[in-house]
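User: Show me sequence and structure for the first protein, then do the same for the second.

Assistant: Starting with the first protein.
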Amino acid sequence: MTKEQTHHIRRVMRMQQGDVIRVADNSGRVLLAEVEYHQEEAAARVVREVRDRSRTSVELILAQGMIKGEKWDYLLQKSAELGVAEIIPFVSSRCVVKIKDEKSEKKIVRWNKILCEACEQCKRSTLVRLQPPCTFSQLSQIDADLRLIAYEDADCKSERLCEVLRAHPSPKRVLMVVGSEGGFSADEVEALTASGFHRVSLGGRILRAETAAISLLNSIEFYYDMAGEKDEDDI
């Protein structure tokens, strides 16, 4: 274990020699292991491999317009809990937040720490992949079997999310694009729609950026994973 992990196990969790913990190696393997102390160091002796129940059947990719401070941290945490596989921050014409190059690396390190802690808390077997911030124009180059943009405007007609998902029963990768606090310009929406994105509505109420992302993630995971038939092992 690292020094930080050792401190958490020994001082915070107060685990004893031989206590059983759950270990994931970020490849999808989940193991049960016994805690072993060697003077000031801690290790885990693998006992057996167990079934991974934390992964979603669909790879969920969230492209999120940059939002302010604590809201962004909250979004990272909750997205990890809801099973997102990859997060792609982007800057669009209406983004208030701008990331300076000299601060970008430090911010990404901090964001990865938030994601790691969230993955540990909800017992995920894999970490969320966090990409460097990109421009809006680069979003159309991201490959996925189903590509969605969340957009709500009185003058534009969006598809119902359930109808779009019903028309795509078994995608491998789903890309969701959600705007920042200022949303999207009409030109930006038209550009993504022209490149094959489905413009979807999340209901009759205007949602905050972080709420929209969480709602969309939860809806898609529920549709493809939780609403299906149970496995025999789950009965």
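Switching to the second protein now.
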Amino acid sequence: MPKASLISIASYVPEKILTNFDLENMVETSDEWIVKRTGIKERHIATDEITSDLGTKAAKLAIKRAELNPSDIDAIICATISPDHLCMPSTACKIASNLGLRYGVTAFDISAACTGFIYLLELAKALIESGAKKNVLIIGAEKLSSIVDYTDRGTCILFGDGAGAAVVSASSENEILDVHTASDGSQGELLITPGCGSAYPANHETINKGLNFIHMSGNEVFKVAVQTLTKSVIDTLEQNRLTSEDIDFFIPHQANIRIIEAVKQRLNFTDEQCVLTVHKYGNTSSASIPMAINDAYEDGRIKNGSVLLLDAFGGGFTWGSAILKFGGKNFNELA
């Protein structure tokens, strides 16, 4: 049976930066308050780009780093909660078209919020190991600025735009060792974009009420996130007979520095093991983990064979963890 390996990683962020000082002029907040509560100093905001544009730019680089051509890709899966269009076409279909793949490639979106990239890994792993596909392009792409209310200081300080992409291919080494995903829909209203679906169709009333924006009960989400993320990692490590010392890099979802620190301390990960990017990107939902992997890859920390532990929690609620050995070339060896 073929093994699935993550053989490349890439990311893209739009040029515009929205700092905490910019937000001071938009809502009642301060740089000190935001940094203390979240660890975020700035986030990138797309202006004339849409989600598929962000995803395409990350995807092109991921394919190049995998030393493949777009025509070698036989499946594209995009995780997003800010798709180009409400229903159709999927953002993955538009990315496929942007890559020149207009016939013969499987393309679809998933919606798992901030856990999206973990779900993508599980899907790609299954497609590769079943023999159904050979090279699967997975993309977490978000233009969260399009669903953020910039008069709501509880959410507008948190979110940014960006995309991360990876190629998962059949390989005899450095495989994706294990992926676990789960959900609990009973608490979905604690982190939700209520409107413009079948529950609250788009009309003047739903738009005037801001139901097209992200709504979050921050304190409740924080408590559930810390507990769930910690348990998810413990379960995954135990099931694979590993400890924190066996992990080269712990790469959690980049939502809030307080959540990350709480989970890191409970799991006994060192500062050197933990990859942090929340300060410069904010929360980019499904793009968060691949963007963080890419940062550690481009600065030379992650190398071929590095053992990565990924952990995420998001709206739904959804959560998941993954353990993998990075299967790509070292960054300094890329052509």
